[in-house]
Design a protein that fits this description.
Elements (H helix, E strand, L loop, with lengths): L4 E4 L9 H10 L4 E7 L11 H9 L5 E7 L7 H7 L3 E5 L6 H10 L3 E6 L17 E5 L15 H13 L5 E5 L4 H10 L3 E4 L1 H4 L4 H9 L2
Parallel strand pairs: 1-8, 2-3, 3-4, 4-5, 5-6, 6-7, 7-8
Helix pairs in contact: 2-3
Bound molecules: D-xylitol-5-phosphate and zinc ion.
Length: 218
C-alpha cells in the first residue's frame, strides 16, 4: 500500500492570506497542497485561477501543487496551469471533451495527470484512462463547496480502483476529496485510498501538527 499523503485544501483557508495558508502547510513538513479551481459552470461556485498558483510560487511556496480542475473545459487551461506552477493537474471525466488528449497535454508539460469523478458517476467511466494517469480522484462529496458531509456510498468505487491497481500492477494513487477528517479517511484507507484532501477539517483544526500526524499513521 502507498504511504498516506495529506493534501490540505487551500479553499478552506483565509482567502485574504493564501500565502500564509500555504506557509502553514509547509511548516508542518507536509509536501502536498490541494488547489481547487471552479468555473461556475461545471460546479456552481468560483474559486481560484492560474494566477493564484503563480502568485504562491512567487511567494516562495515549494509545495507539490495538487491542482483539481472543476471546469467544463479543462483542456483549454492545461497550458496556463502548467505554466503557473501546477505539479499535478486532475481533470473530471463528466464534461464532454477529448479526455485522452487533455491527459496527454498535461503529461507533455511534465506534470502528473489525474482523473476525477463525482459521487454519481459510474467508476467504469474512468477505466479507459487508467493508462494515462497516476492518480484517480474519487470525489466523496458533490464538488463545488467545502464543508460538506462525507458520502459513504462512494466506498465501493475506491475498492474497485484498488482492485484494478493490484490486478494490473498500476502505479496509481487513489485520492479522496470532500468531508475528509480522520474517521472518514480511515474508512477510505480501508478500501485502498492513500491520498487525503482535507479542507475544513485541516484549517479549522486547533492542533494542525497533531492532525497531520494522525493522517501519517493511517
Ligand atoms: C470540493 C473541493 C474540495 C474541498 C474539500 O468541491 O474539491 O477539495 O476543498 O473541502 P472539505 O474538506 O471542507 O470537504
Ligand atoms: Zn478538490
Amino acid at each position: 500500500m502507498n504511504e498516506p499523503v495529506l493534501a490540505p485544501s487551500l479553499l478552506a483557508s483565509d482567502h485574504a492570506a493564501l500565502g500564509e495558508g500555504a506557509a502553514a502547510v509547509a511548516k508542518l513538513g507536509l509536501k502536498w497542497m490541494h488547489l481547487d479551481m471552479m468555473d461556475g459552470h461545471f460546479v456552481p461556485n468560483l474559486s481560484f485561477g492560474p494566477e493564484t498558483l503563480a502568485a504562491l510560487r512567487r511567494d516562495g511556496s515549494k509545495l507539490f501543487f495538487d491542482t483539481h480542475l472543476m471546469l467544463s473545459e479543462p483542456h483549454k487551461f492545461v497550458d496556463a496551469f502548467a505554466r503557473a506552477g501546477a505539479d499535478r493537474i486532475t481533470i473530471h471525466i463528466e464534461p464532454s471533451y477529448d479526455h485522452g488528449a487533455a491527459l496527454d497535454a498535461i503529461r507533455a508539460h511534465g506534470c502528473r495527470a489525474g482523473i476525477a469523478l463525482n459521487p454519481g458517476t459510474p467508476i467504469g467511466s474512468i477505466e479507459p484512462f487508467l493508462g494515462k494517469v497516476d492518480l484517480v480522484l474519487v470525489m466523496t462529496v458533490q464538488p463545488g463547496f467545502g464543508g460538506q458531509a462525507f458520502r459513504e456510498d462512494v466506498l465501493p468505487k475506491i475498492a474497485q480502483v484498488d482492485r484494478w491497481r493490484s490486478e494490473r500492477r498500476l502505479d496509481l494513487r487513489i485520492e479522496v476529496d470532500g468531508g475528509i477528517e480522520l474517521a472518514s479517511a480511515a474508512l477510505c484507507r480501508s478500501k485502498g485510498a492513500d491520498t487525503f484532501v482535507a479542507g475544513t477539517s485541516f484549517f479549522a483544526s486547533k492542533d494542525r501538527a497533531a492532525f497531520a500526524a494522525s493522517f501519517a499513521s493511517l
